[in-house]
Design a protein that fits this description.
The chain is mainly alpha-helical and 124 residues long. The protein contains 5 helices and no strands.
């Protein structure tokens, strides 16, 4: 039961963080490219690589805290569904090149974020 509560707690915080950061980025960025989702997903990918590597290789941490941070917080903070929807909307609006760039850059930089997070965790 504690694992479920940990995920729920982390998820609530992650969802609020995503919403707040997304609004802030949208107020600063006025172009078609959905920078808010892109940046949130990249930061989330980096943090997931960093935290999972730290938790599995370097630190002794309770399963509740690990679940709250990775499954809960980062699961709610990042979102593949929004990325997918925004890509389809870009295509629907005729922004096919932007949709292609967004997809390619998001996946490539997302993988790089996980890789760099894992590398940083190994240095710690």
């Amino acid at each position: 039961m504690m694992n479920f509560l940990s995920v729920a707690f982390g998820g609530a915080i992650g969802a609020v963080a995503r919403y707040g950061l997304g609004l802030w980025i949208c107020n600063k960025w006025t172009h078609d490219f959905p920078l808010h989702t892109f940046l949130i997903n990249i930061v989330g990918a980096f943090l997931l690589g960093l935290l999972n590597t730290l938790f599995l290789d370097k630190l002794t941490i309770s399963s509740e805290i690990r679940l709250a941070l990775t499954v809960g917080f980062l699961g709610a903070f990042t979102t593949f569904s929004t990325f997918s929807y925004e890509t389809i909307m870009l295509i629907k609006d005729g922004n096919i090149l932007t949709a292609g760039i967004y997809t390619l850059v998001s996946v490539t930089i997302g993988f790089l974020g996980v890789f760099l997070g894992m590398g940083l965790a190994r240095l710690i």
